[in-house]
């Protein structure tokens, strides 16, 4: 089932999400989120983006063998960072460059309740940082480089003027 995407400036995108207690309860939500992400050409999607403030994210299988991550946590391995342009399904039409860590250590549960503990890098590491930010009420627009701030703010102004129907 394709779910409605919550769009900026919805307040729920700014809330901290709660841990998932029972994975069986969120299996259907996770597969609906995955389907929605594919339909909207996203590479990742976090539960708050479909109106559920719980700690669940999905990641395109192209970038991660585990497509759903429950209660994901990351820690940083070293200081190395890189810059790449990002966008977000909840902030349509707005893009800006964001600096992120190149490598992170991931702890999470899979949708089959298996523990994942591994270091990840590259595009997967970037998606993870973006999606886990969503679980903490943080959006990529909070982190864009100063050089892109003006462009982003103009895009946000337009979004605020659109009547959000979710
Ligand atoms: Zn996003």
Describe the protein.
With 166 residues, this protein is of the alpha+beta class. The chain has a single domain, classed as Alpha-Beta Complex (Peptide Deformylase), CATH 3.90.45. The chain is built from three helices and seven strands, in the order H-E-E-E-E-E-E-E-H-H. The strands form two sheets. Strands 1-2-3-6-7 form a five-stranded antiparallel beta sheet. Strands 4-5 form a two-stranded antiparallel sheet. Zinc ion is lined by residues 88, 90, 130, 134.
Query: What is the count of distinct domains?
Result: 1
First-last Cα distance? 16 Å
State the major sheet. 5 strands, antiparallel
What fraction, in percent, of the residue positions are helical?
25-40%
Number of helices: 3
Query: Mean pLDDT, nearest integer?
Result: 96
CATH fold-level name: Peptide Deformylase
CATH superfamily: Peptide deformylase
Structural class: alpha+beta
Pattern of helices and strands: HEEEEEEEHH
* Estimated radius of gyration: 15 Å
Write out the strand line-up for the largest beta sheet, numbering strands in chain order: 1-2-3-6-7
Strand content: 25-35%
Kindly state the number of beta strands: 7
Which outline best applies? globular
Attached small molecules: zinc ion
Q: Which second-level CATH architecture applies?
A: Alpha-Beta Complex
CATH class: Alpha Beta
Uncertain runs: none
């Amino acid at each position: 089932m394709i779910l409605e995407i919550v769009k900026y400036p919805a307040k729920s995108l700014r809330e901290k999400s709660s841990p998932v207690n029972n994975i069986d309860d969120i299996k259907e939500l996770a597969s609906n989120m995955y389907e929605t992400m594919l339909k909207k050409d996203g590479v990742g999607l976090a539960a708050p983006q479909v109106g559920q403030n719980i700690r669940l994210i999905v990641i395109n299988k192209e970038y991660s063998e585990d497509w759903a991550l429950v209660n994901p946590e990351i820690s940083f391995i070293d200081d190395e960072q890189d810059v790449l342009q990002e966008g977000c399904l909840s902030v349509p039409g707005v893009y800006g460059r964001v600096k992120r860590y190149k490598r992170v250590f991931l702890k999470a549960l899979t949708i089959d309740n298996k523990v994942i503990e591994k270091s990840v890098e590259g595009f997967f590491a970037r998606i993870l940082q973006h999606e886990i930010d969503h679980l903490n009420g943080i959006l990529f627009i909070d982190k864009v480089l100063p050089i892109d701030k003006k462009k982003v703010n103009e895009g946000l102004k337009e979004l605020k003027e659109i009547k959000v129907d979710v």
